[in-house]
Design a protein that fits this description.
Two copies of one chain form a homodimer.
Chain A (H helix, E strand, L loop, with lengths): L5 H8 L3 H10 L6 E2 L5 E2 L2 H15 L4 H12 L5 H34 L11 H7 L9
Antiparallel strand pairs in A: 1-2
Helix pairs in contact in A: 5-6
Chain A binds a DNA duplex through helix 2.
DNA sequence: ATACGACCTACAGCGACTGTAGCTTCAAGG
DNA sequence: CCTTGAAGCTACAGTCGCTGTAGGTCGTAT
């Protein structure tokens, strides 16, 4: 038997078996060869491509962006502009997300500090602070 | 006619009409009164609760956590511990997320810098850098 | 009385998987 | 060669938090 089984690909890339099949359904992986019994057998090219996908996913690219990047890989010349654009978009997204999360953190700390945790019998002021949107005007 | 229509609640809270009905289905809002014709009519208590939910959602609490916070509001005494725990968990989540995004940003910049964008005819090195998981060991 | 916007229910779809049910196949040990 | 058990197969439902659609009804102003 030559070729890697789907389980072996899974072990080597950390991508779950069901997810690999899902990627195939989405067109990110080609229909691999099959054994007589109908089980998938992969070559090293598929392993490389799956590693690429896994890494790009960890970097937060969505599957459409990854499909586009794969298409660029297949036409190596003149792909710089597109690849750079996709990567730059992603960096911008990440920076925006960080900025928003930082403001969130500030406000969550404010909410938590609204109550000292000791005024027994009184409603917790955290709950009140959560209801109060006035205090965080412009933060989100 | 007394009571607010669902559209009025929507306008006042910024929560879409369909979303308000969805919250009702999820048990976050009570079954409100209805007109003879079957349209929902809300009081101020529902408006307040919806504002609470909207604000908590903006802070990234999931609907289960919000349901728990609402339950705490209804039993004001001794709710401090729970409310603080939920809020602290959220802060921890947000900080983790920021940390991971920061590492992501560093690596995305590395990926983008892998190619100067000018070596025409050669495959773009951004694509290679995306495939190469070795260079970012331990980063994610 | 009519027009028209707002409302109603019920259900399908999104993204990126995950989990389940109920099978079949492969590879190793006896 | 035969059995066993892990690994594989398909197909479809469920996750989360909505959003959108279809096809109808209601409320209010003129």
């Amino acid at each position: 038997m030559h070729g890697h089984s789907i389980g072996e690909l899974s072990r080597r890339t950390g991508v779950k078996v069901t997810t690999i099949r899902y990627y195939e359904g989405r067109g990110l992986l080609p229909d691999p060869g099959r054994t007589d019994g109908g089980q998938r057998r992969y070559g090293d090219a598929e392993l490389d491509r799956l590693s690429f996908i896994a890494h790009a996913r960890q970097l937060g690219f969505d599957l459409d962006a990854i499909a586009e990047l794969i298409a660029l890989q297949e036409t190596p010349q003149a792909a710089h502009g597109d690849a750079h654009r996709i990567a730059k978009n992603r960096i911008t997204e990440v920076r925006d997300r960080i900025e928003r999360l930082r403001r969130l953190e500030v406000e969550l700390v404010r909410v938590l500090n609204a109550c000292d945790g000791h005024s027994d019998g009184q409603p917790c002021r955290v709950l009140h602070a959560l209801a109060d949107h006035q205090a965080c005007r412009g933060e989100h």
